[in-house]
Specification:
This protein has six helices and nine strands; from the N terminus they run E-H-E-H-E-H-E-H-E-H-E-H-E-E-E. By secondary structure, it is of the alpha/beta class.
Length: about 220
């Protein structure tokens, strides 16, 4: 069983990779969809140089696809076809937990290219996912936070250092599954060594605040 991982550079795809390995699935490639303007992963805002460093520490090749949102599906499909031909993958791994629309998208996408959609986090409770992230020593910084929900001060904090009960009191999903925040992984059980990263600059967009990181 050979698979590619839909790789954003964040905690969920990283955990999905670890769990898939426990299921006997070999990850032979990462597929990262990049913001065509800012040269970083879509949503998570992880710089390409850090995505490359993550791939190097995992010892897994990475394919980058520049895309906008309008042509996202077709470009993702094209990327999977490239990886299927090059690495003979038979499945693709995603980090979704319980968003049915995302599952439908993943399943239909993989069906179009004759792959199996694998979602190792699917159906797990938030606390189980949080515990598994700690178990697999996944360390990640909050790189994006949604404005106006009272968590601006958490930008740049390590995910496992969050007060999850405080998040619950604020009615914030402790895994950020509803888009409250996104993360950047700098270490994990499967990494050869930890990445040294440093904050570069903060951007305030219409709905989110984003902290850009560089390799230190």
């Amino acid at each position: 069983m050979k698979a590619a991982v839909a790789w954003s550079g964040g905690k969920d795809c990283c955990l999905a990779l670890h769990l898939a390995k426990e299921q006997g699935i070999e990850t032979v490639a990462l597929l990262s969809m990049l913001d065509e303007t800012n040269n970083c992963s879509r949503s998570n805002g992880v710089a390409r140089e850090i995505l490359e460093a993550q791939a190097e520490q995992l010892g897994i090749p990475i394919l980058y696809i520049n895309t906008g949102w309008d042509n996202y599906r077709q470009n993702l499909l094209n990327g999977l076809m490239v990886l299927k031909e090059k690495y003979q993958i038979d499945r693709c791994i995603f980090g979704d937990m319980d968003n049915q629309a995302h599952k439908n998208f993943n399943d239909a996408l993989c069906k179009d290219v004759d792959l199996k959609s694998i979602m190792p986090l699917w159906g797990k409770s938030r606390f189980e996912v949080y515990t598994l992230i700690r178990k697999h020593r996944i360390k990640a910084k909050l790189s994006v936070v949604r404005k106006n929900i009272g968590i601006d001060n958490l930008l740049g904090i390590d995910y496992t250092r969050l007060d999850i009960f405080e998040l619950l009191e604020k009615q914030v999903d402790i895994c950020g599954e509803k888009g409250e925040f996104h993360t950047l992984v700098y270490d994990a059980q499967a990494f050869n060594q930890s990445l040294k990263i440093a904050p570069k600059e903060m951007h305030e967009l219409e709905t989110v605040k984003m902290l850009n990181y560089i390799l230190a």
